[in-house]
Amino acid sequence: MQVLVRDNNVEQALRFLKKKLQREGVFREARLRERFEKPSEKRAREKAEGIRRVRKLARKKLERESGISAPKKARASGRQSGLE
Length: 84
Description:
Blueprint lengths: L9 H15 L1 H7 L6 H28 L18
């Protein structure tokens, strides 16, 4: 993999490299290989990833067809309102 540094702008080249590595899945692969993953854990992870992928595709298809976006899930934040 090669990244060009233009005008001695190393920070920009580094950001570009990180983006390339992210797209390639290098960081994800490294994280998975940090420790041994039992075959049963691997099957369970791959099955969950597949389910997530199918749900995401179905959600995107529904959004495209209906033109209505699905409601976003409410996040439970640890913060309370500013009034005390």
